[in-house]
Write a structure and sequence with these properties.
Layout lengths: L1 H9 L16 H23 L8 H28 L18 H17 L2 H8 L8 H20 L6 H24 L10 H25 L7 H34 L1
């Protein structure tokens, strides 16, 4: 059993160029990164802060959120361009380009840039620890961040860059542009945090993105069964979609539906 697991870890990447990108040459750096993240936010970080006052990192958080808005907006713009303006893929069959395709390097760079952003997202939780804002370190938050980094790595290694997973990246970068803009406004104008009316719609957007990505996979499987995109890719999208829809829906009910029902009673 253990030898089979090691064999998976030692399996060469689907795209041989992947080994030239930092963190993609071997599963161990990403595995250790996620392990270190979990140990810090769930244990050692809290111990480190136990006898310390929360750090005043408001300016850092504002700059971080602004950076994330710009980063995600630029990624969304590039992917939107190659989806709808100068289409790199037919929308009824998104499959990673052959290794000799002229646009292969563009596909690699956009995919890797998205992966790097999932790593940068981990700073959210680090900031929560440093501010002793532990109530925000929920199972959904930690699981979502850790899984996205791990999932993207294994997608690149087993399947390759781009392809069907660009639909998730396209939707996700748009949602994150809106989400980090909200975080930035909340950090600048702390008194408005509880009164920004469109806050709950961010969670609805997050749910909608997974629904739309899953429906796109269904569309391809039903109307273009000859598409070369492997069935395992669609299954991975379905599994991730079901997990995140369940978690975000549960969060939405607890955060917005139940409090509203209590007020009406």
């Amino acid at each position: 059993m253990f030898s089979k697991l090691l064999a998976v870890f030692d399996r060469p990447p689907a795209d041989p160029v992947a080994k030239n990108f930092p963190l993609l040459g071997s599963p161990w750096p990403v595995t250790l990164l996620i392990l270190g993240y979990l140990l810090f936010v769930l244990n050692y970080g809290k111990k480190f802060m136990q006898h310390r006052q929360p750090y005043d990192i408001k300016k850092i958080i504002i700059l971080y959120n602004l950076f994330q808005v710009i980063y995600n907006a630029i990624m969304f713009g590039f992917m939107f361009y190659y989806f709808f303006i100068d289409p790199a893929y037919p929308l009824d069959c998104l499959h990673t380009f052959p290794l000799d395709d002229p646009k292969k390097n563009i596909e690699r760079v956009i995919s890797y840039t998205y992966f790097v952003n999932k790593i940068i997202d981990l700073l959210d939780t680090i900031f929560f620890v440093l501010r002793k804002s532990y109530k925000q370190i929920t199972f959904l938050h930690v699981y979502h961040h850790a899984l996205m980094v791990s999932a993207m790595y294994w997608v690149f290694r087993i399947y390759g860059f781009g392809g069907q997973f660009f639909t998730m990246a396209l939707a996700n970068t748009f949602v994150h542009s809106v989400m980090y803009f909200y975080y930035m406004i909340s950090a600048i104008y702390t008194g408005l945090k509880g009164s920004i009316w469109w806050k709950k719609y961010i969670t609805k957007l997050q749910i909608f993105q997974f629904v739309s990505v899953m429906l796109h996979s269904v569309y391809i499987l039903v109307f273009n069964p000859k598409c070369e995109c492997p069935l395992i890719v669609h299954l991975m999208i379905f599994v991730l979609g079901v997990i995140f829809i369940s978690l975000f829906t549960n969060f939405y009910i607890k955060a917005y539906v139940k409090p509203r029902n209590k007020k009406q009673q």
